[in-house]
Each structure stands twice: as C-alpha cells, then as structure tokens.
Amino acid sequence: MDLVITNGTVVTMNREREVLAGADVLVRQGRIARVGKQGGVDGAPRRTIDARGMLVIPGFVHGHLHACQTLFRNHADGLELLDWLRDRIWPLEAAHDRASMRAAADLTFAELIKGGSTAALDMGTVRHYDAVFESARDAGFRLTGGKTMMDVGQGVPAQLRETTADSLAESLRLAGQWHGTHDGRLRYAFAPRFVLSCTEGLLRQVADKARELSLRVHTHASESAAECDVVRQKTGNDNVAYLASLGISGDHVTLAHCVWLTAQEHRLLRESRTSVCHCPSSNLKLASGIAKIPELLAEGVRVSLGADGAPCNNNLDMLVEMRLAALIHKPRAGALAMPPMQVLELATLGGARALGLEAEVGSIEPGKRADLAVVDLRGPHASPRVEDAVGQLVYSGRSADVRHVLIDGRVVMRDRELLTMDEASVLAEADVHAGRLAELAGA
Ligand SMILES: [Zn+2]
Asked: Does 217 map to a domain?
C-alpha cells in the first residue's frame, strides 16, 4: 500500500537544494514516487504520516562506523589512537563472540535509527561479521560493511591475527554470502584496517579484488600524526600516497579521517575521486587533530561524515557530528566556513557517494529509495520557528527530535518507537555482553 508523508517542510537535497513548505512525499513500493503539493487524493488506498510543523529530510548516511565497538562505549576514554587501539580496543574486539557481535550490532542500529540514520559504511572486527549483517537484515537498516583485515602489526592479540590468505578468503566468503542481498540493502566492502595492520601484499590483493568484483574499499588513513610517522618509517611514503601507489584510491574507496595530509595527497584525493570521511568527534576525543575539511571541499574532494566507533565519540549521532562539523572549522576558516547546507550535504549525499549509492539514496527525489526521517524541531531548544530550516536542524537539532524513520519505504520507527527491534531487550543484551567482554579483556 502507498504511504504519504503529508504537509511537512521537505528538505529535498535535490540539485537545486529546494526546501518545499507544506509538501507531501508519496512512497510507493519502497521508492519515492512524488514530491510536492499533491492536491486532491486520487482514491488509491494509502497510509499517511502527518508531518505538519516538521521537517522531512533524507535519512543520514554514516561514511565511517564500527558497529562491533558499540559495546565498548565509555570503556576507552582518555587515550590517543595507538594506545587506545592496543590497550583497550583490540583486546575488547578479541573477546567478541558471535552473540556479543549481534548484541553490539543491535545496539548500533537501534541508536542509529533513533537518530535518523538510515545507512552506514561499517568496519567490523576480524571475526563474526555475519552477525552484523544478520542484525542489519532484521533491523531493516541499509548496511555496506565488511570484516576488518589485519595480517600484521604490533600489539595485536592472537585472536585478531590472521594470515593474508585467510583474511582475503573470509572477506570473499562474506561478500559472496551477503553482497547485494535483501534487494541490494546489504552490500560488502573490503575493510583493511589501516596501513600499520596490513602487509603490502594484502593491500595489493584487496585493490585488485575490489576492482575485479566491483566492491568498495573502506580503510583508515592519516588519522594521527604518530600513525603517519610510523607509516613513513615502515613504507618510506606518506600514508594516502602509499595506499594510492598500491591501487587503493578511486571513487570506490573511502578513507576515514585524513587529518594529516600533504598538498600532494590533497591533489591525489581530488584527482582519484576518493572519498574522505570526516569524523570530528573522534578526531577531537583521541586528540588526533582537525582535518582541513573546508580546504578539501573547496578543492573538490568528496567528503562524507561519520561517527566512527562509540568508544572514541561516545555517540553514534549524526546531529552531533553535523553540529561539530559546522563549528570546529570556523575559528580557523572563518564564520562563513561550513554553512549548514554544506554540512547536511556531507551527512546525506556525501555519505551516499561514499557507499556508491548516490543514485539510490541521499536526497528526496522521485525514483530514489524512500530512506527518510521526519524531525520535529518545535521543542524549546530549537524554537522559535525560522525560515532557515537547515540552519535550525544543523545548529539546534538533537537526535531525540527525530520522530519517524523509513528505510526502503518501510517505517522502522514511528513516534520514536522502534518497529523492527525490541528496544528494551536490545539494551538488556548490550549490558550483559558489554560486562562480559570487559571482564574477558581485563578492562
Ligand atoms: Zn574508525
């Protein structure tokens, strides 16, 4: 049956960036069929969601996420990247079993949907990635993800060590089983962790296989200055330039962070159309630095926005990331840097590009998948009502303002109630498994 979201202020993110007041969005068979003033009803049976007084926006798309880490939230504070990984995150990831991975993923998708996010590019731990796909399948979430790949590295626990051959074989098994399933909602992406945990041979094979199979590649690069120093010692090259020299660049590649880049690497990112994922909370909390996002955007580099992992944030909340992305560059780049519409573009169309789904999601236009959020900004923290709905959303909006969420035309949250998951049992399971993992990891 058709569904109409009626009378909302529709932030289309179409080419003209139209914001349509008092407009309807007609959803038919999972896709957006019409946007605008519908006028009279044509008599077809339909369900309605009344969005009067509210915004209708494209669902947010995270360009970088670790669902496997959500149970580690608030278990790894006060550390910089390499210590954070070696002392806390890797031992915790090593403690995961399939049940705890499922609990972590369920908690992730519950939080994401409640905050208006409908899709993500996710990096797992080494094992048990099937559980993340199973969770996204059941939650109705749009996931592009993959197991992380780690065939070398200092301080890596035995349970996370794998051979180059095993790493590639398990990735290909997962891709074979999940890529393109559920009407294309679940997709596979290779996820070599970062240069310091991958041999050159592994990175070259990932580059080749990704091109051969038309799969995406998702990795971290140039997050902290210390990491870049070690990469230079190990490879004799700058991080992003090294990855590109092995074939890891192009419009199918997303590099998370990119805080520390050379001018040559800026050019390389632009010319290869590689996506950068900006993770402002994570870069601040791990004391990594502030990426030069206004410059990258001005140069024409593709940028998305992401929360990264819960233990380096400590939320998975696109409204928090948008607010930070809008604010943290201004002291250096000026008050006009990162205007709200540009920030919202990173969180929607930028993410869609990072997932290779720009023809399918990221805007409210006829023919696209109906991945939508309805946001109520009438609370005291966001009032009074203003003309600039996007500025109001980016500067004043909170995830608790998200009222309804649709993915593939299916209502997955209505009046803040999750319809595809039992929130109380998700939270209870998360507590049980988080405590168990912390004990196993000696945290
Ligand atoms: Zn990350």
From this structure: no
Q: At what angle do helices 389-396 and 318-327 cross, to 10 degrees?
A: 100
CATH number at residue 52: 2.30.40.10
Distance 246 CA to ligand 1 centre (A): 21
Over the stretch 1-16, which tens digit does the pLDDT of each residue have?
Answer: 899 999 999 999 999 9
Q: What is the pTM of this model?
A: 0.97
44 located within any domain = yes
Q: Which residues are within 5 Å of ligand 1 (an ion), measured at CB?
A: 308
Q: What would the pLDDT profile of 123-179 be if each residue is shown by its tens digit? A: 999 999 999 999 999 999 999 999 999 999 888 998 999 999 999 999 999 999 999
DSSP letter for each residue of 252-266? TEEEEE--S--HHHH
| 212 CA from centroid of ligand 1 (Å) | 26
- Say how many CA atoms lie within 13 Å of 419 toward its Cβ: 13
Phi and psi torsions of 145, nearest 5°: -155, 175
> Is 304 part of a structural domain of the chain?
no
Number of domains in the chain: 1
Spacing, Cα 385 to ligand 1 middle (Å): 37
CA dist 138 and 159 (Å) reads 28
What is the C-alpha separation between 192 and 155, in angstroms, rounded? 17
Q: Is 85 exposed, middle or buried (CB count within 10 Å of its CB: 0-12, 13-18, 19+)?
A: buried
Q: How many Å lie between the centroid of ligand 1 and the Cα of residue 45?
A: 45
147 Cα: distance to centroid of ligand 1 (angstroms): 13
Beta-strand ranges (E) seen in 155-202 are 186-192
Give residue 315 CA to ligand 1 midpoint distance, Å.
13
Report CA(394)–ligand 1 centroid distance (Å): 23
Domain holding 408, by residue range, is 2-58+363-418
- For residue range 18-74, what is the model confidence (pLDDT) as tens digits? 999 999 999 999 999 999 987 545 667 789 999 999 999 999 999 999 999 999 999
Q: Would 21 be classed as within a structural domain?
A: yes
Beta-carbon count within 10 A of 52 CB: 9
